[in-house]
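= Paired protein data =
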Amino acid sequence: MTRTPEADTAGASSDPLAGLAPGPPVALRHPGRWVAGSVVLFILVWFGYTVVTNPNFQWPIVGHYLFSREIVAGVLVTIQLTISAMAIGVTLGVIVALMRQSDNRLLAWSAQAYIVCFRATPALVQLIFWFNLSALFPLITIGVPFFGPDFIAVNANLIITPLIAANLGLGLCEGAYMAEIVRGGILSVDAGQREAAAAVGMTRAQTMRKVVLPQALRVIIPPTGNQIIGMLKYTSLASVISVTELLSSAELIYTRTFETIPLLIVASLWYVALTSVLTAGQRVLERHVGRSHTDAPAGRVLPFRLAVINNLFASRGARLG
């Protein structure tokens, strides 16, 4: 059955929008967004007003202690502990991740056992354990194993100080997490890269050092930045074993002055400031690593040592090559 021109004209005239000229597009309305934004804005204004007008926050006391000698000394200990614990964790993480990838079953199982044990145990428990290591080993000796003579014997309490115990507890715990991060980065590299390296005569060690790890940096660095930020906050656990870091310094002051809330605000402000600096540094590193990955010449892979230097320190126009 065919439509006649008269029928088409009749159908068009029955459409009320047929004679309207096309106009500009109309933006879709989102009333839910406006309602949610209004609620959030109200909460922020109310919170800011409360913080500013509530005299119980005692802002003059916060300003008095913010840069006091005790607090600044605690900040320096926190930074030192973060750096040393992360150095232990990253070093162990790389070693354990390579052990997990080994064809030697003893090495692979040992690495897996380390990861399971230290990830399954809370960091606070590990700190207390290392702090009380002298209960298990009163003397730390160096000599011939098993039944041989001991050449050096030192009291464990002289070696395992609170700061050493904090480094051991946090560093060994972090090593288990870093091992999985590094292993994930290694597995993210295409298997064809290893096959190509083997085809040109590279050993497995050379392949890992010159081909796999430089490419894995792009995947490893972002979660490592998160781990550093987490470690900065985990250092507060060291106050339990008498390490005078930031939180412990604040506690020592407010136990003497009974100004608990202002001192906790001081510690929180320092944590926020340090975390903000680390977050900015993490973004810079991620941008450098991602840029070097996209700008790398085709078919060219830098060695691991040069890739690290290139990613961290070289400018965009002066990449090592």
Summary: The chain has a mean pLDDT of 83. Residues 60-318 form a domain with the MetI-like fold fold (CATH 1.10.3720.10). The chain is about 70% helix and 5% strand. The chain has one domain: 60-318.
